[in-house]
Amino acid sequence: MGTLCHYALFDLKPAFRLDLEQLAVRYRELARGVHPDRFADAPEREQRQALEQSAALNEAYQTLKSAPRRARYLLAISGHEVPQEITVQDPVFLLQQMQWREELEELQENADIDGIVPFKKRLKAAQASLEDDFAGCWDNPAEHEQAERLMRRMQFLDKLGQEVRQLEERLDD
């Protein structure tokens, strides 16, 4: 398994559009094959290899099943080093980020459990739209900057989605 590309581990061609259910099924099949319990009686070297393969498989799966992580990974393997820190030179999106944040804070202050549902719907729609845009431009070198910009937006919305889920859990208690 070594340093095989995440896609190669799953016998997939690098692409942004993936069948996530198929990916999950394949992951479970492969994970069973390298599960450390299967190597409990094996020599230590084989146990260590199984553990490493299991970790590599898990890392690959976590990356591919997340749209923003998959986008970043695709950019990286196509030769674009994407810096870790997020500097979004994207005034339109910065403004939109502020609006999303303010809305989320209002939902939180008002403990507005009913307001979360439409907020989540809009968030999902925004994520789907970014994913479509990214799929349309990631493999065109001329559009690399746009692809990177879209990936950063995806990361932001993903983080916002996690915060919405945390808020929901707090309000449900």
Automatic annotation (TrEMBL):
Domain J residue range list: 5-77
CDD domains: DnaJ
Signal sequence residues: none
Pfam families: DnaJ (PF00226), HSCB_C (PF07743)
InterPro entries cross-referenced by the UniProt entry: DnaJ_domain, HscB, HscB_C_sf, HscB_oligo_C, J_dom_sf
Keyword line: Chaperone
The keyword Chaperone is assigned to this record: yes
Keyword Membrane set for record: no
Protein name in the entry: Co-chaperone protein HscB homolog
Species this chain originates from: Pseudomonas typographi
Gene: hscB
